[in-house]
């Protein structure tokens, strides 16, 4: 998909125009609203397919399009990643049980703009170990977002996330990253959730991208299952993730996917 407007940096990162923020706001809001509303269905006994059906219906009812259905052969309106699943969990017959934690990741297209966001949920009561993991992962995302301003670098974002997570004796997944987006789903740059201050491309006003750290209680290594999608921790340790779509403004950052209900974390 080609995008005629704006310009590209030498790293191939699109600089969007001032008016483009409005499109991202609308797309981001729908994705975030759907994540607000699916919370009521997350309970022991529910299947991940039931949650995905709800999400698919909400996308359609809004007159929007799911970005994930048909993406590289993927057939679902969300990714639902339970416990030691790191990301790209496929919704299906899996029944949630009390104490399961799960990430639900939704990407919608509204008027051509992509809104991509994910959060953590618990079926029933969140176990204490999981509580800490989820809190650290959320705080890591927000620290990464706080590093976003013109003149900072992508390495500054990664460093903010990695240094915080590792100080909590948890690990940052290296095998998956955030991404540029806008009128496309995945565009340059790769937004790494680890790095050195001052490294990587410099941030400029008008860049749109996701930050979506995955944090493991154990080791960072992952593997992809035979279904070619589901990524799990190699050591079977619990994993968590939060994702926002953001834009670089003249003075800092705009989050396109805040929860309209104030539910981003905790989710209920
Ligand atoms: N929403 C995911 C992301 O954050 C991508 C999911 S692609 C899918 O980039 F095909 F697995 F749905
Ligand atoms: Co994303
Ligand atoms: Co996503």
Give a written overview of the molecule:
- With 268 residues, this protein is of the alpha+beta class.
- It has a single domain, classed as Creatine Amidinohydrolase.
- 25% of the residues lie in helices and 25% in strands.
- It has 4 helices and 17 strands.
- Strands 3, 4, 6 and 7 form a 4-stranded antiparallel beta sheet that branches. Strands 5-14-13 form a 3-stranded antiparallel beta sheet, with no helix packed on it. The protein has a 3-stranded antiparallel beta sheet with strand order 8-12-15, covered by helices on one side.
- A hairpin with a 6-residue loop joins strand 9 and strand 10 (187-191).
- The N and C termini lie far apart (37 Å).
- The structure holds 2-amino-4-trifluoromethylsulfanyl-butyric acid and cobalt (II) ion (2 copies).
- The site of one cobalt (II) ion has 5 residues, from strand 6 and strand 7.
Top-tier CATH class: Alpha Beta
Number of domains: 1
Helix-strand pattern, N to C?
Answer: EEHHEEEEEHHEEEEEEEEEE
> What does the main sheet amount to?
4 strands, antiparallel
- Average pLDDT works out at 97
User: Are there runs of 5+ residues with pLDDT below 50, and where?
Assistant: none
Quickly give the structural class.
Answer: alpha+beta
Outline type? globular
User: Distance N terminus to C terminus?
Assistant: 37 Å
Could you say which small molecules are bound to this protein? Answer: 2-amino-4-trifluoromethylsulfanyl-butyric acid, cobalt (II) ion
CATH superfamily: Creatinase/methionine aminopeptidase superfamily
Task: Kindly state the number of beta strands.
Answer: 17
Number of helices: 4
Q: Report the portion of residues in β strands.
A: 25-35%
Instruction: Please give the CATH architecture.
Output: Alpha-Beta Complex
Whole-angstrom Rg:
17 Å
